[in-house]
Design brief:
Blueprint: H1 2-49, E1 61-66, E2 69-78, E3 81-92, E4 97-105, E5 110-118, H2 128-131, H3 133-137, H4 164-192
Antiparallel strand pairs: 1-2, 2-3, 3-4, 4-5
Length: 197
């Protein structure tokens, strides 16, 4: 009985030590991991959306709490004024979630551009959503106040041939970005003031 108690105490101490060590490791690497994701995962989409801005949108960013989710907003300075933001959302694709970064012109409330950030879609088919700029270029000029759909669902986006599910996922993500923007617009406008000084 005494040996069993010793074993339970030792296991408890080891588990607590391991848990503390993992938590400390996570805290020390969190910023590095975020920087790597910004540079290599989200960065290419952000830079393709904001190719004409005079700032670095990866540096000029802010976060807003949206329920249980903390959302990152990337600022685009155009003609000396912070006039655009980009944010990411996700849609359910064939192989899992499809991440989409969408840039919004704050004056016209239209999409400046869009870029797929992450996906697990079929190579050569669903993956075209990320690789084919002609697909994402269709989103430019669309209003963020209206649902974005593929033509087969009554919208204006031509689906990728053989990848309707992926195309719908990208449209759903773009529509969600519009909903997030509408919901958080007062906080976005307040945060943008810091970039217009």
């Amino acid at each position: 009985m005494r040996d069993m108690i010793k074993m339970v105490v030792v296991l408890t101490v080891l588990a607590a030590f391991s848990g503390g060590l993992l938590a400390a490791l996570r805290d020390t690497t969190k910023d590095k991991i975020e920087l790597q994701q910004l540079t290599f995962v989200k960065g290419p989409a952000i830079k393709s959306i904001f190719k004409d801005v005079s700032n670095d949108p990866i540096v000029d960013r802010f976060k807003i709490q949206d329920g249980e989710v903390e959302r990152s907003f990337f600022v685009g300075v155009i003609d000396g004024k912070a006039k655009a933001v980009a944010l990411e959302s996700f849609g359910k694709g064939y192989g899992g979630d499809v991440g989409l970064m969408v840039g919004i012109d704050l004056e016209t409330e239209t999409i400046l551009g869009a870029g797929v950030t992450t996906h697990s879609e079929t190579p050569g088919m669903g993956a075209k959503a990320k690789e084919d700029p002609a697909f994402t270029d269709q989103f430019k000029g669309a209003s963020v106040k209206e649902a974005i759909k593929v033509t087969g669902d009554g919208g204006g986006i031509n689906a990728i041939s053989g990848s309707t599910i992926t195309s719908r996922a990208v449209c759903a993500a773009a529509t969600d970005v519009g909903a997030v923007y509408g919901r958080l617009k007062p906080q976005i406008d307040e945060n943008m003031k810091a970039f217009n000084k």
